[in-house]
Design brief:
The protein has a domain at 6-112. 81% of the residues lie in helices and 4% in strands. It has 4 helices and 2 strands, in the order ααααββ. The protein has a two-stranded antiparallel sheet. The protein is flat, with a radius of gyration of 65 Å.
């Protein structure tokens, strides 16, 4: 179909809006509203019929549009096939000239490019440089510059490492020589100290021998004095033990008498409490037949009585 016409859609938008607005007011009052239910059902079926017809029309128009699109593509392809081959031939002719102009410009820049690369010790064929445009050449030069700087940094570090290793070796030699000198001086000092110490030790041994004799005499004297003190202390301790035994017996007797008296008081108090409790129960004619109930909370006993029972049949 060469003529696509959207006017085939029927009814129109304005007509549909009128119908929808009319049906929008419909309500169903409840399950007993048969007339309302029927009116809604008729309206729904009417709208469904219009929707199905619109969708059917749309499907037909889309099919016509697809067929039209295929025809357009065929015509387009046929017309392009006439133009495109000659267009490509003309482009190739232009590309040849453009490339020649580019090569001329690059040859003019070739000395400048080689000079820039020489700063980083880079030598390459002219043919390679002529194949690079300005952006590609700049990227290549930046890469070589980075590589050059990294190599220089590595060389500098290697030199620094060699200098540090030489310094470390010299420091080790100096430290070993200083250690040997100190050890020799220490040996001489220790030998002199040993001679002096031997002399002091002999004098100390003589003094210790004399002190040992004096200490032995003093220890013998102290031992005699300690023995006398021990015997005297044993006498004092014996007297103290006898006195403590008599005191403990007296205290035990008093505690026993106090316990007996306290037990008597407790029994008397218990009898008085039991008597008061019996009097309390008798006051209310307590009989242990299930008609009374006693609840005890702490020191308080509360008496309840069941007065009667009524069953409502």
């Amino acid at each position: 179909m060469d003529n696509l016409n959207l006017e085939k859609f029927n009814p129109k938008k304005a007509e549909l809006e009128v119908v929808v607005n009319k049906y929008r007011e419909l309500q169903i009052a409840g399950i007993e509203d048969k007339a309302g239910f029927l009116a809604v059902d008729i309206a729904r079926k009417d709208l469904k019929g219009k929707r199905v017809e619109i969708q059917k029309t749309g499907k037909e128009l889309r099919a016509d549009a697809i067929a039209f699109q295929k025809k357009v593509l065929l015509v387009e392809k046929d017309l392009v096939s006439i133009i495109e081959p000659e267009e490509l031939i003309l482009k190739d002719k232009q590309d040849v000239i453009t490339k020649e102009k580019t090569m001329i410009a690059r040859k003019e820049q070739l000395p400048v490019r080689k000079e820039k690369l020489a700063e980083f010790s880079v030598v390459v064929d002219d043919a390679f440089l002529l194949e690079l445009d300005d952006i590609e050449f700049n990227d290549y030069m930046v890469g070589k510059q980075k590589e050059y700087l990294e190599n220089k940094a590595a060389e500098l570090k290697e030199q620094e490492d060699k200098l540090k290793a030489a310094k470390d070796m010299q420091d080790t030699i100096d430290a070993a020589a200083e250690k040997t000198r100190q050890e020799e001086a220490e040996k001489a000092k220790l030998a002199a100290q040993k001679v002096e110490q031997d002399k002091i030790d002999k004098e100390r041994e003589h003094e210790l021998a004399l002190k040992k004799l004096e200490d032995e005499k003093a220890q013998a004297t102290q031992a005699r004095e300690d023995e006398l003190k021990r015997l005297e202390q044993e006498k004092i301790d014996a007297v103290r033990v006898e006195k403590q035994k008599a005191l403990d017996a007296k205290i035990a007797l008093e505690q026993e008498q106090a316990s007996i008296e306290a037990e008597k008081v407790a029994k008397q108090l218990k009898l008085e409490k039991q008597k008061a409790y019996t009097t309390f129960l008798a006051k209310y004619n307590f009989v242990d037949d299930g008609s009374f109930k006693i609840i005890v909370e702490g020191n308080t006993a509360t008496l309840y009585k069941k007065l009667g029972e009524f069953k409502n049949k």
